[in-house]
Amino acid sequence: MKILIPPSEGKAKVKSLDILFKDTNFIFSKYTQQIVDLLCLIENEDLTSVYGTSQEKAIMFHRQNQDIFNSKCVPAIQRYTGVVYDHIDWHSLSKKSKQYIQKHVLIFSGLFGLLEPETLIPDYKLKMNVLSLQHHWNPILTETLKNEKVIIDLLPQVHRKAYKPNKENVIPVDFLILNKGKKTAAGHFGKAVKGQFIKYLAENNIQTINDFSGFKYDGFEWD
Question: How confident is the model at residue 181 (pLDDT cuts 50, 70, 90)?
Answer without folding.
Answer: confident
